[in-house]
Amino acid sequence: MNTAQTNPALMQLEDIVLPEKISQFPIAPGFWILALFIIAIIIFAVVKIKQHRRYHLPRKAALADFEQLEPANSQYASDINTLLKRTAMSYFPREDFAKLDGERWYQWLGLRLSEQDAINMGQLLKKRYQKDGLTLTESTQLHTFTEQWLNKRSRFIALSDMPENITPTSHQSEASCSQ
Keywords assigned by UniProt (predicted)? Predict the structure, then answer.
């Protein structure tokens, strides 16, 4: 006996129609916005990292040159001063730093060090003009201060942005040379 013949209501039923498979596209607008936001963040981060690396490239080159200098050299203080001045001129216009020397130069250098280290570094750099120059202990101290100065990763401050009311690093005159 056939069930369709026994129950006429079953004859009116149609086969089950399955719905179409759900497509992954088009994605909802929220996901597109989220994807664009993530891509923008990645691009922004890559650009900032490249800018950061490019900015610190002269400082890293100065560190490499610094490693070549010998503290036992009689011209060590002059070599360090030249290296620091070259580093400054790679970040700022040459006319700002080429002729800069004396207290203003030592103050600018001191912005990247603690106050006492800045004073000591200025005093050691002043000895580059003296006949006797630096002792080995003083050269080692200057080496340490210069290494700290070059290793600091903060951005350099332009001379025009430097505060005018910085206390002088020392009251000795630049021209006090011994013969």
Answer: Membrane, Transmembrane, Transmembrane helix
